[in-house]
Amino acid sequence: MDIKSSVQNNDDKNNKPQYLQIAETIKNKIFLGTLSVGTKLPPERELAKKYDSGRPSVREAIRSLENMGLVETKHGDGSYVANNMKNVMFSSLSAISRMNSVTISEIMEFREMFEYEAVKLAAERRTTDQLKKMEEILIKIKVSDTIYEFQKLDGLFHTLISEMSNNALIIESYLAMNKLFYDSIKDTTVAITLEGESSEELFSYHKPIYDSIRDSDPVLAQIFMNKHFNRIRKSIKDIK
Where is the HTH gntR-type domain (predicted)? Predict the structure, then answer.
């Protein structure tokens, strides 16, 4: 069965607009690797002929793929498969969060599961340059004097842990989920700060994690990350 008849049959079966059928067919080709990152899509005229549709339907399909982060259009050049999978993942996670009214506690549980493994790999794989960058962030955390400054530095610290894993999937996944993570960091930081903890105390939660990564000790890194999350979980309970 060719692509054209597949689209037509699916349209009869699901009664979906044809532009959605076209978008879904192209999306599946991208996910299966048939269309790789950087591949230029055929012009609208060719796609319309291929899918036996009008050009407006093709145009709407491309727009839908752009909204999903799968395709980017360069003015005067054409549409290409985008290197934007983190945007696709973030859109999916955001939709899941909205539809299920995900709580801060649930976000933190997800973050904890994710970072527990990331910090282990960070201790095993970090580079000297990455370690130096983390040390610089840590020094700034120690002297931070506003909630907002600490939020930014805390986000950089945890993002760097994912980068230290030197695992492309972990890095891209963390970037995709960064908004959800940052929201959880923001809320718990406010809770901790309202309890009167100083920047020195906030620094003390991160320093042992840094030391363990510096010493290439994945077991201790996970222990101190767990202690860090225990403190965050307590803050979440306190503000419920």
Answer: 16-84
CB 65 within 8 A of CB 26: yes
- The identity of residue 208, as a single letter, is P
Residue type, 42: P
Cβ(128)–Cβ(201) below 8 Å: no
Burial of 94 (0-12, 13-18, 19+ CB in 10 A): middle
- For residues 139 and 95, the answer to whether their CB atoms sit within 8 Å is no
Q: State residue 20 phi and psi, 5-degree precision.
A: -70, -35
What domains does the chain contain, in order, with CATH numbers?
18-82 (1.10.10.10), 87-238 (1.20.120.530)
Is pLDDT of 4 > 60? no
Q: What is the dihedral of CA 62, 67, 71, 77, to 10 degrees?
A: 70
